[in-house]
Automatic annotation (TrEMBL):
Region of interest (Disordered), residue spans: 1-24, 885-913
Similarity field: Belongs to the ribonucleoside diphosphate reductase class-2 family.
Any matching Pfam family: TSCPD
Catalytic activity: a 2'-deoxyribonucleoside 5'-diphosphate + [thioredoxin]-disulfide + H2O = a ribonucleoside 5'-diphosphate + [thioredoxin]-dithiol
Composition-biased stretches (Low complexity): 885-898
Domain Ribonucleotide reductase large subunit C-terminal span(s) in chain numbering: 158-697
Alphabetized UniProt keyword annotations: Cobalamin, Cobalt, Disulfide bond, DNA synthesis, Nucleotide-binding, Oxidoreductase
Boundaries of every Ribonucleotide reductase class II vitamin B12-dependent N-terminal domain copy: 47-137
Protein name: Vitamin B12-dependent ribonucleotide reductase
Keyword Disulfide bond appears in the UniProt entry: yes
Species of origin: Streptomyces halobius
Domain TSCPD: 742-842
GO molecular function: ribonucleoside-diphosphate reductase activity, thioredoxin disulfide as acceptor
Amino acid sequence: MTETTSGPARGSRAKGSKASKGLRIERIHTTPGVHPYDEVEWASRDVVMTNWRDGSVNFEQRGVEFPDFWSVNAVNIVTSKYFRGAVGSPARESSLKQLIDRVVKTYRKAGEDNGYFASPADAEIFEHELAYALLHQIFSFNSPVWFNVGTTQPQQVSACFILSVDDSMESILDWYKEEGMIFKGGSGAGLNLSRIRSSKELLSSGGNASGPVSFMRGADASAGTIKSGGATRRAAKMVVLDVDHPDVEAFIDTKVKEEEKIRALRDAGFDMDLGGDDITSVQYQNANNSVRVNDEFMKAVEAGSKFGLRARQTGDVIEEVDAKGLFRKMAEAAWACADPGVQYDDTINHWHTSPESGRITASNPCSEYMHLDNSSCNLASLNLLKFLRDDDQGNQSFDAERFAKVVELVITAMDISICFADFPTQKIGDTTRAYRQLGIGYANLGALLMATGHAYDSDGGRALAGAITSLMTGTSYKRSAELAAVVGPYDGYARNADAHKRVMKQHSDANGSAKRMDDLDTPVWAAATEAWQDVLRLGEKNGFRNAQASVLAPTGTIGLMMDCDTTGVEPDLALVKFKKLVGGGSMQIVNNTVPKALKRLGYQPEQIEAIVDHIAEHGNVVDAPGLKPAHYEVFDCAMGERSISPMGHVRMMAAAQPFLSGAISKTVNVPESATVEEIEDVYFQGWKLGLKALAIYRDNCKVGQPLSAKKKDASDTNAEAEAPVEKVVEYRPVRKRLPKGRPGITTSFTVGGAEGYMTANSYPDDGLGEVFLKMSKQGSTLAGMMDAFSIAVSVGLQYGVPLETYVSKFTNMRFEPAGMTDDPDVRMAQSIVDYIFRRLALDFLPFETRSALGIHSVEERQRHLETGSYEPAEEEVDVEGLAQSAPRQAAAQSASEAETTEEHAVPAPKQAHTSAELVEMQLGINADAPLCFSCGTKMQRAGSCYLCEGCGSTSGCS
């Protein structure tokens, strides 16, 4: 793809020609003489975002311009989060073209100014290729790039920061200030407090030191204040303490004790939900805590021996503890409140490219960026599904060649950004410019594995993930070596050259020893092997431009921007998703990756249709018609009937870790029933498998969030028997009976020759309330069953079951009698109940609800034949049912989107606003996640953070 002064690189544009100073950029997707914007259809959209808690409008901007293939959610999030300028002013951005141009043209200019390109023509190709990849959602930069690049404000491009603090009051106060400035800018930071002397050591004045845990209180309060006074999301921070610090047990206990306080205050009637009025009185809630363990400690745990805690000033052992007991204490704390996580110090520093410049002591808040103190990392992530190819014969392959070319393009852009970037502190700026840490990664791994017929927890799935990760990092370092030939290696390379080349050899060796599994991963491994050979050869000659190249970040907001089904390295949340529609409304659809997976596994179209129908109804694949039980694992998800085991998550992390410069942002969820011993085992296996960091979350372990109401154990009841009587409120649905006089419609019908009558009675002002069905042959089994069925449906309606739920369940049900009817709106029925609920839908459901189900009247079908649209005349539209208005152009796009999924789609429940909430309703559980501070919807996990699908807000730093 490139040529440099060191000779032509493989795949270069002008093979055999004399190399010039600068990179020669090869076209990947674009056409000479045609701008990428001119190759897509653009549509005008209206963005109106509301707070689901009170219905207030959070954001509104009408007439924004986006490609017609961008989803409603991606349009909403990019418009509200990334467009710059005051809303309503002429300076406000209103088109994706403006946003991409603002960023891409800045990158091009900086590249030209700093000598990255061989010619103006190469700079133009770079600009067009970058614009194409962003336009088509092939990759995305991290959020700070979209916020800041090309604006008049400081052009901060990094999302991840690591600070440092020494054992002095001046340094501690600097820590508070620096952290506050980073939070103010919407980013997060991490640091290690182990240099601060413990509370068991003396000050120079002779008194006892306060210890790091006491100073954590001030920093936590500061983070909470900045969160509530500035940004709408929580401050993201990581606090690390070494396992040999004398205050490590107090550090482990901090959140456990506070969690006990939360429970006591909650039971006393205080509002202790996350975001509640009283939660701010609790300490240590604004940081993720991690204990930095080393091999010496883990071996002592393994052997059951003693381990020494060391004074910070002298390094002398001042106390010995039982290693197993301390490890157990960490697991008990994680079981109780999800903190602390674990970082494996020796593993981290074994892969450190710059050890002569200092050890790696900490990470960013999400644990994927690990490098020198006072440094930062800018991120970008590739959408893996964009590289999955299907040929005419239905065979699949991963486009390793194009993937590598896009990685080269993105890494080049990321390095250019450091040339013009601003940083929150002078120290961070100096270190980042000297070491040029980058963090390329990917999203949609879970969707890619399912689409290719791989179980997430399988050797084949891990092999494909490992191969892609190896190719990504190998290609990144190859490009870094090529950049070093053009613009020079990073400033700290000379003193770290041997270590950097050693780490490259470790990556290459891991690539060579990795297990190849099938026709999908083997070609990717081959491409990765070639890339690592180039890394070793070019690195020896040129050095490297970047001390770090890759991480796996949460990809929260940018994952939604790219319309990814899954974030980072995570599996799919569930098989049925929530989808917003242009023009208002929403529907639940079966993941598009499911039919691809079934096709890959050899199922025929009729079988695929039946299986997808089953998933649409039940939310899982258990007992799906024709699906082999051996294939169930392919459709295992993070939540649901068949959820992935905790060690399945750990093994996937271990498959990717040897091929990453940094680490992986991921929390391993364990069920509420998990034991402390099981958590100990996960932490221990993480060390054995070579991970750099690991965090545990046991479902429902925290109080400071919405939880499902559960009955108390008998032991709890006995323990509280002597306490004052507590009023227990049990919530049950209340039956709303119809008045004596009620409006109704009686309809006579025939289905397949069977005659009958349906009387549908309504509440005077509130919809359908009861249904009576009478078949013509009195005393028959059919007549009796229809009578009983109608009573059951009527009682359900009066207890609040929505009619659309019945319609979605009973339409398309097949049994005799079936066939022709005498109803012009429903000419054919697959059964009597199929007819009944189609008729009820036509009589009682609004147009947009039944249209999503494919139920239309004869007039609407005639209108479709004449105009191409089922859309009713203006006087027929249920205006109150529309979430937002949109031009006909956008509505037509909605219809085309719906056509591809309408067969397996039903209206989303009105209470659901995201996929996480939809899964809760389907499975009858509560996802253990907070509500979004911005829009009030239930968030879902993305790496170590939480992501709001509704508005794109995250609880983390990326």
